[in-house]
Design brief:
about 130 residues, alpha+beta, Trna Endonuclease, Chain: A, domain 1, two-stranded antiparallel ribbon, 3 helices, 8 strands
């Protein structure tokens, strides 16, 4: 076999990917098992009116010198019966100190403040407390 005829092996992802069909949000392609479990939680929570997955776009500047703009798609946008709106990011706690994550969090906090929306980061600690892990 020459190098051109070799079949490429599909690398197995470390992350649990798939599709969740929600009665509230419709079809959602998740990219982690934690997100999948949280989707099931949102569907079963009677206080949740609506939720969406990666629909919100928040622009932020990733490089101050070049003024390079990027887009951040928070994991969830949730609205509750009491009218409260929350933007939720699910992230392992070990990744919270990365510079790119910090920039996204700052942009999200600013956007949420401007739009009267709460911002929450759920790590494995909060997900365990909720009984999802």
């Amino acid at each position: 076999m020459t190098s051109k005829t070799k079949k490429r092996r599909k690398r197995k992802s470390r992350y649990h990917r798939g599709v969740h069909v929600s009665p509230i949000a419709g079809e959602c392609k998740y990219r982690s098992g934690w997100e999948s479990k949280y989707m099931v939680y949102l569907d079963s929570n009677p206080d949740v009116v609506t939720w969406s997955y990666e629909k919100l776009v928040i622009e932020y500047i990733s490089n101050k010198k070049s003024k390079k703009k990027r887009k951040y798609y928070p994991d969830f946008q949730v609205e509750y019966k009491d009218g409260k709106k929350v933007v939720i990011e699910i992230k392992p706690s070990r990744k919270l100190q990365r510079s790119t994550v910090i920039k996204k969090i700052k942009a999200a906090i600013e956007w949420c403040s401007d739009h009267d929306v709460d911002y929450k980061i759920l790590t494995e600690i909060e997900l365990k407390d909720m009984g999802l892990l």
